[in-house]
Amino acid sequence: MNRIGQSPVPARAVGQTTRSIRIARIDAVMGGIFLLVLLLSLLGTALTYSSANPALQRIAALFLFEEERNLPTLFNFTLLVANMVALGTVAVFAFGGNDRWRWHWLFLALFFLFLAYDEAAQVHEGLNRVMDGVVDASGFLAFAWVVPGIAVVLAIGLAFGRFLLALPGRSARGFLLAGVLYVGGAIGVEMIGANLWWSHGWDNVAYSLLATLEETLEMTGLIVLLHATLGVLSGPGGSLRFEVRRGGGGDV
User: Fold this and answer.
1) 155: Cα within 13 Å, side-chain hemisphere
2) Which residues cross the membrane (predicted)?
3) Would you tell me how many other CB atoms lie within 10 Å of the CB of residue 132?
C-alpha cells in the first residue's frame, strides 16, 4: 500500500479547519497508561502474597493481570478496539482507492474485532474443553486452546507474507515486531504458564509473575501495532490530520 496517508492536503474551504495529532502523543498516552496498569498489577501481586486480609486481596484482584474483568482486562480490550478501528480505517481508504491489499486490511480489522470480543467473553477458554478430547491436555498443553491458536497463527503468517513485503519497510517491521510480541505472550508464555499451573497450580507468585509477563508482551505488541497502523494512515509526517467544518446548512 503506497498511497494511504500520503496524499496532499487540499486547500481549506471557508469555515474549515485542519486539526492534527501526532502519533508520538498517542504512543505516550498508551504507554503511560500501560506502565500505570503494570505497576498496579505488580503491587497487587505483592499485596496478594504478603497479606492474608481478604478485603485487601479483593482490592488487589482488581489489578492483577491473571484475573478477568478488571482494570487490565479493560485496558487490553481498549487496545484491541483501538487497533480494530485503526485497521478498519485503513481498510476503508484501501477500498476507496481499490488497493490490491484491501481484503487483507479488512480481514485484520475483523480479526481484531473477534479478539476484542474474545477478551470480553473469553471464547478461547471454551476451546480448552473441546481440545481436551483431541490432545493430551497436560504440561505445556494444559491450556489446550493453544493448539488451534498455533494453527491460526501459522495460517495467517502464510497468507500475509506477501502483504508484509508490500508494506513500506518501517511499517512491515512494526507489524512483524507487534506479531512476535503478541504471539510470544499469548501463546509462548501462555504455554509456560500452563505447565506451571499443571504442576503447581495458579495460586502462587511464580504463576502471577508469568501472567504479568504474558500480558505485558501482549499489550506491548498491541501498542506497537497501533503505532505501525497509524503510521500507515499518517504517512511520513507522523501526524493524523482531521478536517473540521463549521457553519450551518450541510456543514458538519
Assistant:
1) 7
2) 28-49, 74-96, 103-120, 140-163, 175-199, 219-236
3) 14
pTM for the full model?
A: 0.89
> The dihedral of CA 216, 217, 222, 227: what is its sign?
positive
Rounded Cα distance between 84 and 87, Å, is 5
Measuring CA to CA, which residue among 82, 1, 2, 6 is closest to residue 241? 6
pLDDT per residue as tens digits for the range 121-165? 888 777 888 888 788 889 999 999 999 999 999 999 999 999 999
Write a three-state SS string for 51-88.
CCCHHHHHHHHCCCCCCCCCHHHHHHHHHHHHHHHHHH
Amino acid at 241: R
Q: Which three cell numbers stand for residue 156?
A: 495467517
Q: What is the reported pLDDT for 246?
A: 64
Dihedral angle, C-alpha 36, 42, 44, 46, nearest 10 °: -150
